[in-house]
Amino acid sequence: MNILGISCYYHDSAAVLIQDGKLAAAAQEERFTRKKHDQNFPRRAIDFCLRQGHIQVKDLNYVVFYDKPFIKFERLLQTYFATWPNSRESFLQSIPVWTQEKLWISDLIRTDLNYNGELLFSHHHLSHAASTFYVSPFTEAAILTIDGVGEWSTGTYGYGRDLDITMMKEMRFPHSLGLLYSAFTYYLGFKVNSAEYKVMGLAPYGKPVYAEKILNELIDVKPDGSIKMNMKYFAYDYGLKMTSDAFNQ
After folding, report:
1. Residue 114 per-residue DSSP state
2. Rounded to a whole number, what is the distance in angstroms from the first to the last CA of the chain?
3. Pairing of β 118-121 and β 62-65
4. How far apart are CA 244 and CA 246, in angstroms?
5. Which of 80, 73, 122 shows the shortest CA–CA distance to 97?
6. What is the torsional sign of CA 157, 158, 160, 163?
7. What is the pLDDT of residue 235?
């Protein structure tokens, strides 16, 4: 059984090959193109994985994409309509990319790979969960995923048992711990989806002088650990920047 996993068209494109339930190879496209955070179709990473597995495209049983584009597109449309007219500029930039490329991912994958077999689409956070549980030494484990946003989910929890993963509860966009982190990355002058690790590296050298203000103004932490964002301080749900003018005050 040969399964190829693909992530692309967002940031840090990558590929992974699973053979008979075992991790055979994995690689990011940037390692071959030398283009940092390369988001293009990971042709070189795929070729590497196939070479490591000593197979060709025709030997693949499944190709799996890391999220569900149509559900993500639904979320974008609903968010744009809910925040109109503030979302007009972002809408005009985003929609052509989706209608010309991202909605046709299945065709792009089949064409670029010359692949005619079965193509599957996994939920974004399920992909995150699988990437940890299935390569762990555990047959049973609690699973927590925290991200910017997938289709609608921004955080989930569930459990894995043997070959099954069950997702029990989710936190939904626009309320997101990952996007809160990216908002601070943006506010500090760093590039979103790129330099969050720099903020993480700098954090131990600072003092939590704004911790109380953040908890009082920006987010409401619920008893179950989920959060609700005060969206008057953020613009990522409708605009081309992460924070609103109110965030700077």
Report:
1. T
2. 57
3. parallel
4. 5
5. 73
6. negative
7. 95
The stretch 4-23 carries a mean pLDDT of: 93
Q: How far apart are CA 112 and CA 95, in angstroms?
A: 23
Q: 168: which residues sit within 8 A by CB, 6+ positions away?
A: 156, 157, 158, 159
Backbone phi and psi for residue 164, each to the nearest 5 degrees, phi listed first: -110, 140
Digit-coded pLDDT (tens) for 135-193: 899 999 999 999 999 999 999 999 999 999 999 999 999 999 999 999 999 999 999 98
Asked if 149 and 179 touch (Cβ cutoff 8 Å), the reply is yes
Tokens of 40: 């293009």
Residues belonging to the active site: 11
> Residue 69's closest CA among 116, 11, 120, 16?
120
Here the tokens at position 132 are: 């940890």
